[in-house]
Design a protein that fits this description.
homotetramer; mainly alpha; 9 helices
Chain lengths: 193, 193, 193, 193
Amino acid sequence: MMGKSRLEAFSDGVLAIIITIMVLEMKVPPGPEFSTLVPLLPVFLSYVLSFVYIGIYWNNHHHMLHTLAHVNGRILWANLHLLFWLSLFPLATGWMGQNHFAQGPTALYGGVLLMAAIAYGLLQRAIIVSQGRDSLLARAVGGDLKGKLSPVLYAVAILATFVAAWLAQALYVLVALLWLVPDRRIERLLAQP
Amino acid sequence: MMGKSRLEAFSDGVLAIIITIMVLEMKVPPGPEFSTLVPLLPVFLSYVLSFVYIGIYWNNHHHMLHTLAHVNGRILWANLHLLFWLSLFPLATGWMGQNHFAQGPTALYGGVLLMAAIAYGLLQRAIIVSQGRDSLLARAVGGDLKGKLSPVLYAVAILATFVAAWLAQALYVLVALLWLVPDRRIERLLAQP
Amino acid sequence: MMGKSRLEAFSDGVLAIIITIMVLEMKVPPGPEFSTLVPLLPVFLSYVLSFVYIGIYWNNHHHMLHTLAHVNGRILWANLHLLFWLSLFPLATGWMGQNHFAQGPTALYGGVLLMAAIAYGLLQRAIIVSQGRDSLLARAVGGDLKGKLSPVLYAVAILATFVAAWLAQALYVLVALLWLVPDRRIERLLAQP
Amino acid sequence: MMGKSRLEAFSDGVLAIIITIMVLEMKVPPGPEFSTLVPLLPVFLSYVLSFVYIGIYWNNHHHMLHTLAHVNGRILWANLHLLFWLSLFPLATGWMGQNHFAQGPTALYGGVLLMAAIAYGLLQRAIIVSQGRDSLLARAVGGDLKGKLSPVLYAVAILATFVAAWLAQALYVLVALLWLVPDRRIERLLAQP
């Protein structure tokens, strides 16, 4: 049993790097005219979406680990597993942006979102198991509708790319909006005496 | 309500990465002669300016969060919003430097400065709201002349690029000099018994 | 004699960056078709292997330093020496992946694994020396079979590349699996009263 | 007056990134043969030298800040000034390595070393001023022979590049060896009752 401070520090480091190196996919345009920025626009939009997603993960990770006192091996690896999928964001983001939100890259982006959501769920379960079914986190997430709905919506979005890529993108934005409010369930419980 | 340590750690990480990856825009020159360094000079100068700006933001962020005890969702997102605009510094810096401070890139650089200044103001307001109008920070920033003047000067600078790019650059340097002194107002108040 | 917090923070930072910049070796593919992802597959597989290895090092580093109260110069440098070899992971991983696990790159990858394992052993020894033969860590690692076996297996794997590269790769995966369980010996001892 | 924890965290972050992105200057070689590694050898050697230098700076920074209780604006900026010059290490290292330790790049590398040494001295002075002439650090550094000798040796090395580049490189290695022992003066004083 060990403290969680290094787990948080390491996760913060990885998330900070992921969120920042995504910006490197926006290559400095060759000329000084504003028109050279136009091809960057889809890359910029995909960057904004991914920035928001990493921000959501950081916020929720922040909240979830707040309830955690000790880490064990399973939690350490569940956390690394989550970081692995999040580390693919720069690649998926760059591919989607540089190909103007084409079908294939949009589907791959959804795949990364899906795997990250599953990994987050596994980490949440690992923490609940280590704390007992009666723990603060277990009560806080409760039925965990958002947590269960998100992977389903990502899967639907991936299938939707066969119809139209923009359908999938709209779903990605929708799920992001659903999560933009940080996990107030935990905040609320913590505020109770 | 949660502690601010992870907010600080994450922000420090992102700022440390931004300030460091800007240096990657200065590509290693192809030959061993000093003359191959000459084209790097404008990139170097824009790097120095951006390094100072990120340093200013880190210092003031450091001071502002010092007065903060608890973070809420609004503060978390206001902080991420600030980091988003700061994350565009490497791109804006590289574009301005590689095009020898041409008009368009100089205006875009000003746009990033302007958005970051607005985001900083929003974060400051979010913190003051969470602490109450009577808080340490609220009293410390007072009329906040510098905070209100900076966005105006950036906007003026953007317009000035239509006249001459160097006018805008001079304004960017001027505002940086204004801020180079860290926010002594907070230091002074904290030093009071 | 100084605290270990900055040693941990610096190591976490370096490991977080190493694990994240490896992903930059997977260049965004040029076209939007899934077929353009195929050449990335070996790079992806080598990325997964290296991600797991860095994760193992981080976990075990985490556990080992947990038993440490004070750092001295020897520990500081033994730690930097370990980080040096780990910092070569992105290069070795990229070379192995981009050459489809060819013989030479596979051998070099093993060389980096071997040097990192030796460096980890030296760091462990430096900590035990500083704490005395009777310390918690000394008792926890005991005969340290895994620690002694790993470099041998890496050396065997390097030689095995002369026969077939996949033999070496199988050994790399095997050693990773051996280590995937975090060092429960220390956990167990710490759990004792 | 504020605590030093964020100053340490930010500096650790920047130093961790600098030490790690230098490895990106060693581009993955195009082919799978060991012969393709040969052109990397000078880049590797310059990487080793710079890794050791950043390690020395991190260690000494670690020791120096250990004696520090509070930071003021001057210390914050002296620290950023030091980080600025250290941030040029990847560029100077890459240029020197990729040009096989030619005269010009060797001189520039010395220039970066010289400026970093001066910046370190300024930071040391800022800390001593803030603590008073009688402080722990003031007594610990005493005459500070190494600190005064290093910039002189760097300057000599830069001049020596006009005779032969290897002379300068030998001096860089020599100064690194002088510093490789962490600042035991401070360790010794701290160990006193």
